[in-house]
Amino acid sequence: MSGVRLREGESFDSLLKRFRKVLAKDGILQEVKRTQFYEKPSEKRKKELMAARRRLLRKLKRMEE
């Protein structure tokens, strides 16, 4: 479980910023967003194929430049 401890003299804003950074590093926010709603397996496959296609097109575009 991710967590941060309040440092001496640290403001709440900087504590919150560090906490969000830890969550992003651990991939927790992405996991929550991904599992928040049920996604049918067929939709999941379609989404993964589209992402792979976008990556390939970006890679080809970079090679052309």
Automatic annotation (TrEMBL):
Lineage top rank: taxon: Bacteria
Keywords of the record: Ribonucleoprotein, Ribosomal protein
Any one GO MF annotation of this record: structural constituent of ribosome
GO CC annotation, single: ribonucleoprotein complex
Protein's UniProt keywords contain Ribosomal protein: yes
GO BP, one annotated term: translation
Keyword presence, Ribonucleoprotein: yes
NCBIfam families referenced in this protein's UniProt entry, alphabetically: S21p (TIGR00030)
Name by which UniProt lists this protein: Small ribosomal subunit protein bS21
Originating organism: candidate division WOR-3 bacterium
